[in-house]
Specification:
homodimer; alpha/beta; seven-stranded parallel β-sheet
């Protein structure tokens, strides 16, 4: 008898992903799984989004971190409910962990759930959590070769947020060819939506909010 | 019968790590395993180091990437031999892959071997490759909470390179409390050597070169 361990683990995760998908669908919640390297600005993007959409879209957050509740505290301080998951060393969130967290979120007061995955551009791309879409975040400080070097997450994401574009402003601060990133990302994923933003200054967020508002609207229609 | 799969995989890796350690020791080569998030500047640090130490320390590089040979080409252009490993999706290098690459490197012309691991602050920390030491690289653009949030690699590394400090120079470009990083890293690892550098400008590299020169010297003594 041959036991394919890799496949079995993935299937168990997919089973919980399917449960999450059903739970979200029945309750008409939009769920977005944010994936990036550590320090690309996921939490800062969420804090600004929660502040700016306050009253228009009600947001809840599931925070995935290896250790600490630094990020959940930042979200809570911004006024949104946050459930912290500590993976205790694991490099990605599992659908089982997200299932437990979903049950703790106050669904009645929420339209949109962000899952902030563990900071890692590789592993989280292989684990479905039951989300409606993946959002990949790339900071300009990380360089413009990242879609070429880490293709999986760019191929699977519905949206690419190119963050920290304020660092491009001072000539020569950061070498980053935004057109190269767009071209490489679209080669992997022709329908990917790309929003260049600065979570520090707020530049570019209007387009991102339009996309979020439309996506929440479609789900409720 | 209970089969502990996790343990078995690690042991197979450790076996190759031990082979690599022996091979390196017999040949008196210093081997440093560089680990960081994608885009922290590992390759740029290596390119500058190769250029500046040209003739003083002979360097070879093993390049780990999920896809592409972009990094190996940059190293070769700087004048050092480079062996590219493509992990084809895997999130870290294995000791087996490194063993094959070590055998391809021209050992006679080399004092120091850098392994540039796959860009990932999490998974590579769990896999010994037979290296003499791990070097963790953190870019100031990633934020000062990273040792707290990703403790494993900071606890295991001999050296922390804090890169892109040129981005701190223009007030307000990047929020990063370098003292917080030093304190948090030393709480995890009291003996860690910390060198703030800019691979763009060369600032701080003298200390890094002193450490490299001493480390290569000790091995040959």
């Amino acid at each position: 008898m041959k036991v394919n361990i890799g496949k079995k683990i993935l299937t168990a995760n997919e089973e919980y992903a399917a449960k999450n998908r059903l739970l979200l669908s029945e309750n008409k919640k939009l769920c977005l799984n944010m994936i990036s390297s550590p320090g690309s600005g996921k939490t800062t993007i969420l804090v600004r989004t929660i502040n700016d959409l306050n009253g228009k879209i009600k947001i809840g957050v599931i925070e995935g971190d290896i250790r600490t509740d630094i990020d959940a505290k930042r979200i809570t301080a911004a006024g949104a409910p946050a459930i912290q998951i500590n993976t205790d060393g694991a490099c990605h969130l599992s659908a089982l962990q997200v299932n437990a967290a979903l049950k703790k979120l106050p669904f009645d007061g929420i339209d949109l759930i962000f899952i902030e995955n563990v900071g890692n551009l590789v592993c989280p791309s292989a684990f479905e959590l039951g989300e409606n879409a993946k959002i990949v975040v790339l900071s300009v400080a990380e360089g413009d070769d990242k879609p070429a070097k880490y293709p999986a997450i760019f191929a699977k994401s519905k949206v690419l947020l190119i963050n920290k574009i304020d660092l491009l402003k001072t000539a020569g601060q950061v070498d980053f060819n935004i057109e190269r990133v767009k071209t490489d990302a679209r080669r992997l994923n022709k329908d990917i939506e790309i929003f260049p933003i600065s979570a520090r200054t707020g530049e570019g967020f209007a387009e991102w909010y339009r996309w979020l508002t439309e996506s929440v609207g479609k789900l409720k229609a």
